[in-house]
What we know:
single chain, 471 residues, mainly alpha, two-stranded antiparallel ribbon, 4 strands
Amino acid sequence: MTENGVRNRLKNGKKSEVSSVTNGDVIKENEFKVRESPLTELIQSSLHIRAIYNIFVVILLVLFCDTVIYDLVERGKINIGLGVIAAGFGDIRRGMKLWLYDFCIAMAFYPLLVAYSWAGKVSRKYPVLRPTVMMLGIVGVIAVEVAAAIVPVVELGRKHLELGSSITVTCEMFRYMMKLVSVSVACGPRCLSGNLPLPTFKHYVYFMFAPTLLYRDQYPRTKRIRWGVVVFHFLEVAAIIFYNCFLWERFIMPYWSDYGKERTVEAGTLVRGMFACVLPGVISFLCGFYCVLHAWLNAWSEMLKFGDRLFYEDWWTTSQFSLYYRRWNRVVHSWLRDHIYIPLAPHAGRPLATYLVFLVSAIAHEVILALSFGFFYPVLLVEFGLIGVVMVPLTAKSGQLFPNVFNLIMWLGFFIGNGILWSLYPMEYFARRNCPVLETDSYFIPKSWSCPEVILKPNWTFQNPLRIFTK
């Protein structure tokens, strides 16, 4: 497929796969079908995109050489970043136990579903029991969701896991919870009506590992597993983990690892550190997208012969924030659309339904970060749930009229936003490690606001930059 063909497919896909609510009628996106990820097609068909891919590989190799040579010259040993990875995934056994707990909860849900189907059969014979059975089903789903969340949340709140392990545990917790909701919505009504059979346990387990959050009785499947593709994508995942560890070790820790050891810090030092984090922040942002939504999901799709691999669309070309949020992560967006937006929009209206989608998504992201870092610091909540929501209507029409200008504005926002994230979260993280422990310390109050004290440079005065023209 040529590069123009890929672009045409993306454009046609956007026209044919639109979800909206008009006069109470729900128009859903097309069902699953066999298709590749956009970057897979672009890398295969365009030498330009392949060159950009190679540039990122070269940057990784340069960072690798920088780490090896620097540590060899400075310390007389070779460091390939394994120390940062080992520290980031510390106490992995405890993390595996928490993941296994959620997996067992998900597996235990199937026999509960079978039991509810039996209760539904009884309610068809005795209609007076139907409201009670329906209420029991709703309460049961809520109880299972609470059970899936309560242990990881309490355990991570009681004793903090290292960043990599805690992010994995919390993301898996949300993944299982969202899948259980999807199964409940799809299978709950059929348990009461008896019109359709329940999925087999084999298909249920397949859904739990499939790279989608929407339950269907059937998914398009490919004919064979290309193990070379699986190995290649997992190698990409491993390389990106190294990539982010190099960025953390070479660009973040030199600026923020000592934050809080001194009682005061100059404002200029903070500003310089924040701007220094802009470029590594964006690179990490792009690498994280590619790692999770492309390499990881494509590897599992290949192993499971899952045919539909449109996990994202060409969000990097958009000039409207609403389109960016739809295209960035189609896996989560589809779940939010089907289980929050579509049920609410006819009753609450599209604006309120849209805002609630943003609110739920922003809170979920913030919970993941709070449990992962070990403190509540709602920087992402403000960027995503406040500024992002405001930008949706502001770019709705203007983005169509001036696409090039607003695409540039969006990328400027990505650069600045990621620079702020990669500055404020490390500042708070190291402030809690380096600053003295006080009785007033709180999980919810940022410590970096009070320790250390931010001061201006001694004898600092404002000088008019236009004075040179008045002399």
